[in-house]
Design brief:
alpha/beta, 4 helices, 6-stranded mixed beta sheet, 203 residues, 8 strands, single chain
């Protein structure tokens, strides 16, 4: 009888271990899937209003995040894209994803080359593959698309009218608003021990 009980107990332990390993494997798969997906976050309306934050075309700035819940290290990457050098150039830019947030998809998979967000410039430094990016693969990532045309420095109080369109030059306040939104609406505000602030060109 004791042998039968021990055999039954051993079988139950094997089943429990098997179920535990299955759960761990599922969690691992979910982490891999999540690591590839970037989620869009527009500025909260109140924050956008307080800072009068606008892309060139008047749309609301935003950012993308890709989190690692086990890390308190963060990397913020600012997209580059040069400057618009005159009013016609700025108007033309306002019709593209470098001047308007209306082009931003709600999320994107960083393994898909055709993504509407041009992420090639930060593909290595914000890559979850630790064989490619051993120093930073475990960081929490935030990616800020560039939409003000003046390297996040514009600070005109009023928009400029051109070609029946209002153009906004609010890059400096956009940046302030973006940081406030990150602090209030992501774990960056409560669970950060280290920040690497990076970017490319105008970023």
């Amino acid at each position: 009888k004791k042998k039968a009980e021990k055999k039954t107990e051993a079988c139950e332990n094997k089943k429990r271990m098997k179920n535990f390993l299955i759960i761990i494997y599922i969690i691992f798969l979910l982490q891999i899937i999540d690591a590839k997906i970037w989620t869009r976050k527009y500025l909260d309306d109140e924050i956008a209003t307080d800072y009068s934050a606008h892309c060139l075309d008047g749309s609301t700035p935003g950012y993308y995040y890709n989190l690692n819940s086990t890390s308190t290290q963060w990397m913020i990457f600012m997209q580059g894209g040069g400057w618009c050098m005159n009013i016609q150039n700025c108007y033309d830019r306002s019709l593209t994803n470098l001047g308007s947030s209306t082009w931003y998809p709600s999320s994107y998979d960083d393994t898909v080359a055709s993504t509407p967000i041009p992420i090639d410039e930060q593909q290595s430094i914000q890559n979850r593959d630790c064989t490619i990016n051993p120093a930073f693969c475990h960081f929490n990532f935030i990616y800020v698309p560039y939409c003000d045309g003046t390297s996040y420095t514009g600070m005109l109080n009023e928009p400029v009218s051109y070609n029946n369109t209002l153009l906004y030059f609010r890059g400096k306040e956009n940046l302030n608003a973006l940081f406030k939104d990150m602090i209030l609406n992501t774990p960056f505000g409560t669970a950060s021990s280290e920040l690497l602030f990076s970017g490319c060109s105008a970023g």
